[in-house]
C-alpha cells in the first residue's frame, strides 16, 4: 500500500532560490488557470485539465519565465486545480496568495527521482532541475518511491516521498471481537470507552506568550515591510512546532488504539460546520461571537479531523474497522437500557439514567454508547460485562511483561501515569 515519508531538506542558497522560483511559478499558473475556468463558467462553457495543459505548452513559448520550472510540476498544479474544482466547485476554490500560501510543487515521475543514503544521518535525492539535494535521513524509506513533493513549512524546506511498501491489509485483526468507542472533546482530546483519557498541551507557556507578542507586533507593522515578513516567519515557526506535536500525538494514539481493537467507533462530526464563525452578516449579526470563536479555537487545537485521518491510516496495517455513527442523542441515551430523555444528562459531567429499574451501577459513558451503536452498525454482539472495572493506564503489577501493542517499554514503572493519559471522573464528555 502507499504511504508517505517526509524529510528535512538541507538546501544550498542557490537551490533554495530555485525552489522559491518554482513555487512562485506554480502559484501563478494556479491563479491564471483558476481565473480562466471562472470566465468559462460565466459564459456557460467548460474548461478542464486537458485543454489547459495544451495552452500551457503554448504559453511557455511566449513567456520564457515559465520554462524555469519543471514541466511535470506545472502539469501537476493544473491536475490539482482540476481535482479541487471537481470536488468543491470552480467558484469555491481559493486563490493562492503570495503572503498566505506556502510554496509546494510535486515531481510525479519516479524514473527522474534517485535516492541515495550517504551515512547514518544523511541522504540525498536527485530531482529535475534541482540536482542532488541533501536531506536528513530520520527514518528508512521502506519501499519504492513513486513521487516526491517539495514544500516549505515554518521557514524550512521538506521533501515528501510517496512510497509503495508492498504491505497488504490483514483480513482479520490480531485480537478479534475487541471494540472501543472514542469521544473527541475540547477539554480532553480523546476519551475511550475503556476509561482512558488521552490529552496533552500542544503549546508551552513560553511559546504562548511569545506568539501573543508576535501577534501584537504584526498588527503594528507596515504591510509589505521586511519586519512584517520576519514576524510572519517567526509566527510560522511556532505554529509548525505546534502542528508537529499535534500530529505526533494523533499518530501515537491512533497506533495504540488500532493495535488493541478490531473495531473503532467515532462520531460522524461535521467539524467544518462546528468550527464555523458565528459573526453572521451586517443585516443579521450573530450572537456570542467571542465565545463561539474561543470554542472554534479549542476544537481546531485538539485536531479532531487529524485524529480521524490517523486512525484510518493506521487501521490499514492492522485490519481494524473504523466506523462513524450518528452523533444525535449520544449524550442523552443510556448505554445499558437505551432510554433517551433530556433528564438523563444532569450536567456536562454527570449522567444518570431516569428509566425505572435501569440498575446501572455507575454513570453511563458517552463513549460506551458510541461503541454499542457501532456494534449494532457492524452487526456485532452487544454483550459486555456490566461490572467491568474501568482500566487505568500504567497499573501493571510488578514482574509483568510489557505489552508491545500499547507501546510499554521494559523500563515502565507500575503505577506511574503517562504524561498523555490522565484519569478523570466518569461522565465527562
Summarize the structure in words:
The chain is of the alpha+beta class and 429 residues long. It is 37% helix and 17% strand. The chain has nine helices and 13 strands. The strands form two sheets. The protein has a seven-stranded antiparallel sheet with strand order 2-6-7-1-5-4-3. Strands 12-11-8-9-10-13 form a six-stranded mixed sheet. The longest helix has 35 residues, at 226-260. 24% of the residues are buried. Residues 380-398 and 402-429 have low confidence and may be disordered.
List the helices and strands and how they pair.
Elements: E1 2-10, H1 13-42, H2 49-62, H3 71-88, E2 104-107, E3 114-117, E4 122-127, E5 131-136, E6 144-153, E7 156-164, E8 179-184, E9 190-192, E10 197-198, H4 205-220, H5 226-260, E11 263-267, H6 271-274, H7 289-302, H8 304-318, E12 321-325, H9 366-378, E13 421-422
Parallel strand pairs: 8-11, 11-12
Antiparallel strand pairs: 1-5, 1-7, 2-6, 3-4, 4-5, 6-7, 8-9, 9-10, 10-13
What labels would you give this structure?
429 residues; seven-stranded antiparallel β-sheet; 13 strands; 37% helix
